[in-house]
Specification:
By secondary structure, the protein is an all-alpha fold. Helices cover about 80% and strands about 0% of the residues.
């Protein structure tokens, strides 16, 4: 149990940061899987497209592959993430609630 409001705020922020890290890791793992699946599907599409002319289905499949590939690469690239609730915000809320409990 936290001994002070500051320590509680620090512990909550550390917990939220570790949860955020796990969520981003899981998202990147799924994006890697989608990228691999899109590459396999694209190789089959390329083999079929090389045999004949491109029709509407082949063009739509290539556009879908390009979008899937681009989105998966974007997710895999590093980005600057920000924490939704910072420690200072949590501390201000806790102090306000503590003050209200003393008044009430």
């Amino acid at each position: 149990m936290a001994e002070s409001i500051e320590q509680l705020s620090y512990e909550l922020t550390a917990k939220v940061l570790s949860e955020q890290e796990r969520a981003v890791s899981g998202l990147r793992a799924c994006a890697g899987t989608v990228l691999a699946a899109a590459s396999i599907a694209g190789s089959f599409l390329g083999a079929q497209a090389s045999r004949g002319s491109l029709d509407a289905w082949a063009i739509s499949a290539m556009v879908s592959f390009a979008l899937c590939f681009g989105c998966a690469i974007w997710v895999l690239l590093p980005h600057g993430f920000s924490l939704g609730v910072g420690g200072g915000d949590l501390l201000a809320i806790e102090v306000a609630l503590w003050t209200l409990s003393l008044v009430g």
